[in-house]
Write a structure and sequence with these properties.
Blueprint: H1 2-5, H2 9-12, H3 18-93, H4 98-103
Length: about 130
């Protein structure tokens, strides 16, 4: 009667003496699986800690960079603009400095009717021949 209720039970019977060996193997496999899972958990925790640390470093560097940009825009940019304006006004009375201003793109645009457009790039193919 038991055989009719569970037809796969006959296939699960083991020869005598092998059941303790299989139980030992199963225990070892479970131990290896648990060890592997613990190792993965520790590895994930270490990676998370490292990424958190790197994120903190990046935030600190970003704050420092933003402070530098803010300082440049509030302190140094007005000084540079004042220097350029002074050079351009000096160039109006001393035309010998104009080539230097043109070399660095500081020539005053007030005297020109309209700024010249940049030259278009050459079409595909060979150039210079």
């Amino acid at each position: 009667m038991l055989e009719s209720e569970n037809p796969g039970a006959a296939a699960l019977t083991l020869p005598a003496g092998e059941e303790p060996a299989l139980r030992e193997e199963f225990r070892r496999l479970r131990s290896v699986l648990n060890t592997t899972l613990m190792a993965m958990l520790l590895l994930c925790a270490a990676v998370n800690a490292f990424l958190f640390y790197q994120g903190r470093i990046a935030q600190t560097e970003l704050k420092a960079a933003r402070r530098m940009v803010q300082e440049f825009q509030t302190v140094k940019l007005p000084l540079i603009n004042k220097l350029v304006a002074g050079l351009q006004s000096f160039a109006q009375t001393h035309p010998d400095i104009n080539p230097i201003l043109e070399r660095y793109g500081l020539k005053s645009l007030a005297g020109q009717a309209s700024p010249s457009a940049p030259a278009p790039l050459p079409a595909g193919g060979r150039t210079g021949t």
